[in-house]
Amino acid sequence: MELTSYAALTVAGTEVIHKAECTFSFLGENSGGSAVTGSSTVTLTADAQPLQGGLAGVLVDGNQDSDGYGNTLSVTASGVLRTG
Predict the structure, then answer these.
(1) What residue segments make up the domains of the chain, in order of their start?
(2) DSSP string covering 23-48, please?
(3) pLDDT confidence bin for 35, thresholds 50/70/90
(4) DSSP 8-class letter at 69
(5) Contact assessment for residue 72 and residue 65, using Cβ atoms and an 8 Å cutoff
(6) Residues 18, 45 contacting (CB under 8 angstroms)
(7) Fewer beta carbons below 10 Å: N end or C end of the chain?
(8) Rounded mean pLDDT of the chain?
(9) Nearest to 77 by CA among 11, 9, 23
């Protein structure tokens, strides 16, 4: 997983994250017994939030996205950050 932080905004001394990307890889067999491999990347990019005067997007609790294989990347926040 790759996280991209926003250095100009911190919460409790930690830079907030505005982009997260995860690559899921798979290996298996098709119905004919032939090997099948592949990968899929899911990327979360922050929506505009009313932080820093609306100039910065921040990933917040509940943000998520999935690929066509059912792999899901989601945000679960452990701290409190009020956006409104």
Answers:
(1) 10-75
(2) EEEEEEE-TTS-EEEEEEEEEEEPPE
(3) very high
(4) T
(5) yes
(6) yes
(7) C
(8) 85
(9) 11
